[in-house]
């Protein structure tokens, strides 16, 4: 059975974190060179008078000086200014001045840079600085409940982490939780196929199936975890008793508890994969399926030899995005089991959350978080690489 | 094959027995899963009308099994008979509710504004900041998606205390913006890529500036995508628990934190918990039903073209 290459929805898809260069290539907003590469004749707009240029440079220089001065002032007179807020305002002003300065000094180039600047300055301020700061905290002995304040202690937290059985257990749980994505994928694929079949009331079912995704995981944990699965009278427990499980305690032994958490999480997130897969199914050309039928394939063969391979790229995106979300899993565990019984259901996030909440152990908790960050960056990079190669090989 | 009503294929019609079996199977599965999706919601809503006995005896169907009662809603101060009386619980609830509304709308709006601008710039122009080119900048933005909240939470806890943003709505808005920005950029980039560049080129020839072309020509076309991104961002912000639990205490606490904090204290008031959970999920349930099209559009952006 041949697959129509033109019909593959896969060509369009990839986890396109790295995109090909955009269509218009005229413009280089180079911070270092002032050479304007807009084609000649782009208009008088780009002829910037030296006075305007000077004004722009002065503005940017003044703003930078102002920012630095604020920071120095804050450091020197820490006691008098209550907080570091002035530095935040100074940063915002600096950003505004930088934007105006770009337009003044570089004209249209500056206007283009203005599209990107807000998001860039925002993200840099909100990510780079806290992450670097986090790496510093990770190297300190800092307990918020003790009075001694923060003490630099080098790699002590790191060695402690290596010997921490609970952290290892949480990491192991994350492996299990990530593996559960496979089951979620199968169910989501099944549902997507159902919704793509010729059925009545498709819109109704789609809305209903989408519902769990909209609901707050915390409310869901309460609704399902604490109430439906309640040992004494929850309907799920009653049902389980009817089905012959004498002692339907969903959260008391480690394995059942883990499975229960997986089910809860799956309930909220299956719609997410389902919708992506459904979009993939709908984008698939019907000609290919018709051709398969004409060739005499039955439904089973059609699925495995046509639909599934064609859906592979979309599947990979859906699964990877789902795994990324799964790696953040915390709220359900925090609210339903708080990691119990005995840390059996802990995800890394919920474990660190309790490390902070219950023990106020900021230094050690941050070290755990930073180690986790490194692990998942490596893992996700590896996953993307594998996935890209996999998709390329199959198609 | 643009028309696809119920055009069953030859093989399906030739064997009516197997056709019927497959119909039964399909609808059976659909109904079962619809039940799985809806039952917890049904359970929550009905529980908010139950008294303690009805809860513990596992009564399910109102008017048949048990007599509904405004009990849960009364404890929230939201039942018909208590709605005009003063109620501290209701004030508390409304405060949390407003916090949730303000933070999620604020963060989504901010993310849409700066995210759309960045996505537009990245799809249309070539940048080079030092040694970072477009692909690197895109990667930088999208890679934030991987960052787990727990990595940022503790540094932010300390930083926010230093800058006086702890337990403020502004602090939460900034963090939530950061959280949804990659998703917004992802969706909007997809949107702008689907708009032909010729439109703007024509506008530029007609004398509009770059920003003029963006606001007058591109934005109106990209509006559905913006709505989709906004709604998806809203959902994520409204449901966010982790940051809210760590970074707020009294003033800026949001609905999920309030829901979670109820569970611990001396035995659970099932009915009031159920009422609270219902109130917490209701806004998004309504949005989900009304704007389902946009939600789907947002979720499938970039997945299939």
| Contiguous helical run count of chain A | 14
Provide the CATH architecture of the largest domain in chain B: Orthogonal Bundle
Strand content of chain A: under 5%
Structural class of chain B: mainly alpha
How far the N terminus sits from the C terminus of chain A, by CA atoms, comes to: 14 Å
**Strand count, sense and closure of the main sheet of chain A?**
2 strands, antiparallel
What ranges of chain A have pLDDT less than 50 throughout 5 or more consecutive residues? 1-44
CATH topology grouping of the largest domain in chain B: MetI-like fold
The number of strands of chain A is 3
Structural class computed from helices and strand pairing of chain A: mainly alpha
Low-confidence stretches of chain B: 1-7
Helix content of chain B: over 70%
CATH hierarchy, class of the largest domain in chain B:
Mainly Alpha
In the CATH hierarchy, the third-tier topology of the largest domain in chain A is known as MetI-like fold
Shape of chain A: globular
SS summary, helix count of chain B: 14
Please summarize the sheet with the most strands of chain B.
Answer: 2 strands, antiparallel
Output the radius of gyration of chain B. Answer: 25 Å
Which key features would you list for this structure?
heterodimer, A: 395 residues, mainly alpha, MetI-like fold, two-stranded antiparallel sheet, 3 strands, 68% helix, disordered N terminus, B: 305 residues, two-stranded antiparallel ribbon, 2 strands, 71% helix, globular
Topology:
The complex is a heterodimer of chains A (395) and B (305).
Chain A: E1 29-30, H1 50-76, H2 85-106, H3 108-138, E2 140-141, E3 151-152, H4 156-162, H5 165-196, H6 202-214, H7 217-228, H8 235-242, H9 254-283, H10 286-294, H11 299-326, H12 331-336, H13 348-359, H14 362-394
Antiparallel strand pairs in A: 2-3
Helix pairs in contact in A: 1-2, 2-3, 3-14, 4-14, 5-9, 5-11, 6-9, 7-9, 9-11, 10-11, 11-14, 13-14
Chain B: H1 10-14, H2 16-47, H3 52-56, H4 71-76, H5 88-124, E1 127-129, E2 132-133, H6 134-143, H7 149-163, H8 169-193, H9 197-205, H10 210-239, H11 242-247, H12 255-262, H13 270-290, H14 292-300
Antiparallel strand pairs in B: 1-2
Helix pairs in contact in B: 2-13, 5-8, 5-10, 8-10, 9-10, 10-14, 12-13
């Amino acid at each position: 059975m041949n697959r129509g290459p033109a019909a593959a929805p896969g060509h369009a898809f990839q986890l396109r974190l790295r995109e090909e260069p955009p269509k218009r290539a005229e413009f280089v907003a180079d911070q270092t060179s002032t050479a304007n590469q807009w084609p000649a004749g782009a208009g008088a707009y780009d002829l910037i008078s030296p006075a305007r240029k000077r004004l722009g440079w002065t503005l940017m220089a003044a703003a930078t000086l102002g920012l630095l001065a604020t920071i120095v002032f804050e450091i020197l007179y820490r006691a008098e200014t209550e907080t570091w807020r002035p530095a935040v305002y100074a940063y915002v002003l600096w950003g505004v001045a930088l934007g105006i300065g770009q337009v003044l000094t570089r004209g249209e180039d500056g206007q283009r840079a203005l599209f990107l600047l807000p998001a860039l300055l925002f993200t840099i301020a909100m990510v780079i600085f806290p992450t670097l700061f986090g790496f510093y905290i990770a190297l300190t002995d800092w307990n918020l409940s003790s009075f001694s304040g923060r003490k630099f202690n080098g790699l002590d937290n790191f060695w402690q982490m290596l010997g921490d059985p609970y952290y290892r257990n949480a990491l192991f749980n994350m492996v299990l939780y990530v593996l559960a994505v496979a089951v979620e994928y199968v169910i989501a694929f099944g549902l997507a196929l159902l919704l793509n079949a010729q059925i009545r009331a498709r819109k109704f079912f789609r809305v209903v199936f989408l519902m769990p995704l909209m609901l707050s995981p915390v409310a869901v944990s309460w609704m399902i975890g604490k109430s439906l699965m309640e040992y004494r009278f929850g309907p799920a427990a009653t049902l389980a008793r009817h089905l012959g499980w004498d002692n339907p305690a969903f959260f008391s032994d480690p394995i059942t508890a883990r499975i229960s958490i997986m089910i809860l999480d799956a309930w909220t997130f299956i719609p997410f994969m389902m919708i992506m897969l459904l979009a993939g199914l709908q984008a698939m050309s019907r000609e290919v399926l018709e051709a398969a039928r004409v060739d005499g394939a039955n439904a089973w063969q059609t699925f495995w030899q046509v639909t599934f391979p064609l859906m592979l790229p979309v599947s990979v995106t859906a699964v990877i995005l789902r795994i990324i979300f799964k790696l953040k899993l915390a709220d359900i565990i925090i609210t339903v089991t708080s990691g119990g019984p005995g840390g059996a259901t802990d995800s890394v996030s919920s474990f660190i959350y309790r490390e902070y909440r219950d023990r106020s152990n900021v230094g050690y908790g941050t070290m755990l978080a930073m180690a986790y960050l490194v692990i998942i960056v490596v893992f996700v990079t590896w996953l993307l690489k594998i996935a890209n190669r996999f998709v390329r090989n199959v198609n | 094959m643009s028309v696809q009503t119920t055009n069953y294929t030859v093989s399906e019609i030739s064997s009516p027995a197997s056709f019927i079996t497959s119909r039964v199977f399909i609808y059976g599965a659909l109904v079962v899963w619809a039940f799985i999706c809806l039952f917890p919601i049904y359970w929550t809503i009905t529980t908010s009308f139950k008294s303690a006995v009805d809860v513990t005896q596992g009564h399910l169907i109102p008017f048949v099994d048990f007599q509904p009662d405004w009990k849960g809603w009364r404890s929230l101060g939201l039942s018909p008979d208590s709605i005009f009386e003063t109620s501290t619980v209701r004030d508390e609830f409304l405060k949390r509710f407003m916090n949730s509304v303000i933070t999620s709308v604020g963060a989504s709006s901010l993310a849409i504004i700066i995210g759309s601008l960045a996505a537009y710039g990245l799809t249309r122009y070539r940048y080079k900041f030092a040694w970072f080119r477009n692909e690197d900048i895109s990667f930088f933005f999208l890679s934030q998606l991987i960052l787990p909240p727990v990595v940022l939470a503790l540094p932010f806890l300390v930083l926010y205390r230093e800058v006086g943003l702890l337990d403020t709505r502004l602090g939460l808005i900034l963090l939530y913006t950061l959280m949804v920005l990659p998703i917004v950029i992802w969706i909007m980039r997809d949107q702008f890529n689907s708009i032909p560049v010729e439109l703007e080129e024509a506008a530029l020839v007609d004398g509009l500036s770059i920003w003029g072309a963006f606001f007058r020509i591109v934005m109106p076309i990209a509006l559905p995508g913006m709505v989709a991104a906004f709604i998806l961002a809203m959902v994520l912000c409204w449901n966010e628990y982790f940051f809210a639990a760590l970074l707020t205490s009294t003033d800026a606490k949001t609905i999920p934190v309030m829901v979670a904090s109820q569970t611990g204290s001396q035995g659970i008031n099932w009915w009031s918990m159920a009422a609270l959970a219902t109130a917490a999920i209701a806004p998004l349930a309504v949005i989900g039903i009304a704007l389902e099209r946009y939600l789907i559009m947002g979720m499938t952006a970039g997945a299939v073209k």
